[in-house]
Specification:
The protein is α+β, with helices and mostly antiparallel strands. The protein has two domains: 3-52 and 272-404, no CATH class; 81-259, no CATH class. Helices cover 56% and strands 18% of the residues. The chain has 13 helices and twelve strands. It has helices spanning 3-15, 18-55, 85-94, 128-133, 145-149, 159-165, 210-218, 236-250, 266-309, 311-319, 324-361, 369-395, 399-404, and strands at 60-65, 68-70, 73-75, 98-113, 116-125, 137-140, 154-157, 176-179, 182-190, 206-209, 225-230, 261-265. A hairpin with a 2-residue loop joins strand 2 (68-70) and strand 3 (73-75). The radius of gyration is 34 Å and the shape is elongated.
């Protein structure tokens, strides 16, 4: 069997119907390009979410009050007063897998400077909070441990707060602002971090000593949250177990009783977001894969037409010695050429479309080599699968009946 001749015959047959061949390839081209670009968008979104979560502190652990029942009424977490300063101190003292830890109390309200005011959130924390949340002071300085001990009325503000209050471009350092009725002197400005993956403005905040917020703003003794960071991202889960054990002991919770606190890590959030984007990526790839199926059906359809049009040619070739397997391979090679050529064009188009989406629209894109290879292999298998039956039908034609075919 001379495969070179079969390939030349297949190419000549396709060149005689260039436009029809291109239309047949179009389904494969669109299918491959769609799969590559959809997977690139999905993987890009997944990596972008992971990066943003990492910027928030990939090894961060958040401890919140849990729901509880009092007098048969289930209270919300915000109404609970189960987290105390002693809990924070126990975590710092007893949990070995914790690197940094900060108590947290917060309040929402209006911040005022002169004639300008804006809604924002005031967070009462300690110095470790910046390291835990990956914040840094760009201008000025962070408050000191002495400020925490003396409940000093000093604060560090985010860029959004500066933009809202100091509209004439004044230097905010040293200025006194009021949060509701409490004055705070600005001693630092945080470096801008922009919006996070949940659409929250990370620069719209004021940070002050937690003792100041507890005593002078909220007049409470309990904590709203405790933030901590594990020594490594991998240590987050065992660190959560240690924290839970310490808090259950502090709160005198029996073995079968429900916790009155919740401990969550960024790894849980990352896994949840990743699984969601993974599901969306698979869904998009499946939708795009339908185009490959349609393209394969188009190949089968056009090969059937080709067999019908060339029935007399098949009969003549078989009458002068061509065997059924020669006819089979001739038409199968045509189907493979169509699918492989369409696959190559589709790969180039998919990569090009992904880059256009990245630079023109600004969406996060990540093209993985496996998606290109997989798409190309699938389109090749599609060509073989859908081209086999028409080719088999051509190889089984009776030479005499084929010559007589009108």
């Amino acid at each position: 069997m001379n495969y070179g001749n079969l390939i030349r015959i297949a190419l000549r047959a396709l060149s005689n119907n260039k436009f029809r061949g291109f239309l047949t390839m179009l389904g494969i081209i669109i299918g491959v390009a769609s799969v590559i670009s959809m997977l690139a968008i999905g993987q890009g979104s997944k990596r972008s979410i992971r990066e943003q979560i990492s910027e928030m502190g990939s090894n961060m652990i958040m401890i919140h009050p849990g729901n509880g029942r009092f007098g048969g009424v289930r209270m919300s977490a915000s109404d609970m007063e189960t987290l105390k300063l002693e809990d924070y101190q126990s975590i710092v003292r007893e949990v070995k897998l914790i690197d940094k830890c900060s108590p947290c109390v917060n309040a929402s309200g209006q911040v005022i400077y002169g004639a300008n005011n804006a809604p924002t959130t005031l967070y009462g924390v300690n110095r470790d909070y910046l390291d835990i949340r990956k914040f840094s002071v760009e201008d000025g300085e962070m408050f000191t441990d002495y400020d925490i001990r003396t409940s000093a009325k000093v604060c560090v503000v985010g860029k959004t707060v500066v933009d809202n209050l100091f509209t004439k471009g004044e230097d905010p350092l040293g200025k006194t602002i009021r949060f509701d009725k409490t004055p705070f002197r600005i001693i630092g400005v945080l470096k801008s971090k922009g919006y996070n993956s949940m659409g929250q403005d990370q620069d719209d905040m004021i940070i002050a000593p937690y003792t100041t917020v507890q005593k002078r703003v909220l007049a409470i003794t309990y904590l709203r949250e405790i933030f901590a960071s594990a020594v490594t991202e991998e240590a987050s889960v065992p660190a959560i177990d240690e924290i839970s054990a310490v808090l259950r002991q502090n709160h005198h919770i029996e073995a079968n009783d429900e916790d009155d606190f919740n401990v969550r890590s960024q790894e849980e959030l990352s896994s949840m977001m990743s699984s969601t984007t993974e599901l969306m990526t698979v869904l998009l790839a499946c939708i795009a894969g339908i185009s490959l199926l349609v393209g394969g059906i188009g190949i089968m359809n056009i090969m059937y037409v080709s067999v019908t049009e060339r029935t007399r040619e098949i009969g003549l070739r078989m009458s002068i010695g061509a065997k059924g397997r020669h006819i089979l391979f001739q038409f199968l090679i045509e189907a493979i050429i169509i699918s492989v050529t369409g696959g190559i064009i589709g790969v180039l188009l998919g990569i090009g479309a992904s880059l256009i989406i990245k630079y023109a629209i600004g969406w996060p894109i990540y093209i993985q080599a496996y998606s290109v290879v997989l798409s190309f292999l699938v389109c090749t298998v599609t060509g073989i699968f859908f081209g086999w039956y028409p080719a088999q039908k051509a190889s089984n034609l009776n030479p005499i009946d084929a010559i007589r075919y009108e």
